[in-house]
Amino acid sequence: MSTSANEAPAAQQGAPLLDVRDLIVHHGQLRALSGISLRVFPGEVYAIIGANGAGKSTLLRTIAGLHRPTEGSIVYDGKNVTGLRPEKRATAGIVMVPEGRRLFPSLTLEENLKVGATFARSGPWTIEKVIVQRIYGMLPEILSSGVTVLLVEQDVSQALRVATHLQCLLEGHSTLEGRPADVTAAQVEAAYFGMGEQAAAADGIPEGSEA
Amino acid sequence: MGWVNAIIQGILTGGLYALFACGLSLMFGVMKVVNLAHGDLATVAAYIGIGVITVTKVPFLWSVPIVVVIMAALGYVLQRSLLQSAITRGELTTLIVTFGLSIVIENGLLQFFTANNRGIGTGSSLISSSFSIGAGLQIAWLDVVIFGLAVVVLLSLQYFLSASKYGRLIRAVADDREAAQLSGADYRHVFGICAAVAFSTVALAGIAYGMTTVVSPTTGTDTILLFAFAAVVIGGLGSLWGTLVGGIVLGVSQQIGAQINISYELLAGYIVFLAVLVVRPQGLTARRSQT
What we know:
The complex is a heterodimer of chains A (211) and B (291).
Chain A lengths: L17 E10 L2 E11 L4 E5 L6 H9 L6 E6 L2 E2 L5 H7 L16 H10 L8 H6 L6 H6 L4 E5 L2 H7 L2 E6 L2 E6 L6 H9 L4 H5 L9
Parallel strand pairs in A: 3-6, 3-7
Antiparallel strand pairs in A: 1-2, 1-4, 4-5, 7-8
Chain B lengths: L1 H30 L6 H19 L3 H30 L1 H23 L16 E3 L5 E3 H23 L1 H11 L1 H6 L4 H26 L6 H17 L4 H21 L4 H15 L12
Antiparallel strand pairs in B: 1-2
Helix pairs in contact in B: 1-5, 1-8, 1-9, 1-10, 2-3, 2-4, 2-8, 2-9, 3-4, 3-8, 5-6, 5-8, 6-8, 9-10, 9-11, 10-11
């Protein structure tokens, strides 16, 4: 995609927390991502949507360090983390919550939390606090404490509801990018299912209509 | 009386077999490494013990922690270098690499220590003394001490795995390596710690074997590795206390076989081993199936 799609809207001031540039990832011979770029700013909830096989999980796993990109760079908080191992990225602050939860089945709930706490960075969260309150109820509070979220979701309406920024993938390419308020339902539909080229051409430029 | 004696001796021998087996079981349970050099490493530990006593003239008991520390360090280094790179290349590679390591160790020992048998001299009368429990039953103190050592080792391993920080991480990495990485755990380092712990038990196993009988460069594969495998399979893969159960079953089977005819000793052990594989392949102390 052209870089014009990635120009930060006026509301996004300062340096991006996460800056992914022209990411190309292969699974063996298969090209899973073809030059994906995105910038996530502090406090933002950036939603990645797309159908099955669009490359959402590959993108997240590459950002977390579980896949090595063929090309492109990942800059986190001003530091290039493209070559870092996943555990180093986790302790640096990029935390991926994997699909299917991936708890450690032979560990107790408390031990599961303690594994995470072993390498935790300092913050307002302790095991006691997490256990006492229900995690879902705390989501708004977590967000207000300045955590930035890069969300991968197949359910578009769910993603649009919570996100402050949106990017749609299709077969490893970016087909739509913008703020949820600025994209139309038709654009999302076209970008999601890859119908027609107008979705790519529109590229999330606001048309004045609300999604 | 011969039968009672056979069973008692078999149970006590089972402690030694559990010592052989628990390191093998730990390495397989966590890293999925079938360490074919396991027995040879125990032999190396015995030779290191002999060397430490001969060269430094320290009392036998002092040599034990020295050998354990040396073997633990060797375990960490070996895991982080050779075994880790084998793991990265796939499960079959670890088999080939540890098989190669086994050959290298055996020939290295032959080169430096010749094919002669050697025993670990404790310089204590304990090694040969025994006590009577009546009716002509003699029990060697050494066998009792080794059985007790095996129980202590298993208890310590259980406590380490369930209550310590690294034990928790070892279980987490064994469950899901990738998810552990996402939690910030460097699984290579955790594997190294696990190998160090496993090699400590290997050190104790080698010393215990060297005290009970004699070691030669081929003892590792001929005896220790095979008995360890049998004990692990009989007891159940990945189960710590299963190695003690498996060791005892193996020991008792061998002694009963020997009671029938001295030449049936090894045969009886392997018949039971095969019978367990056929009837109860998950082992006698089956927990949840390993995925």
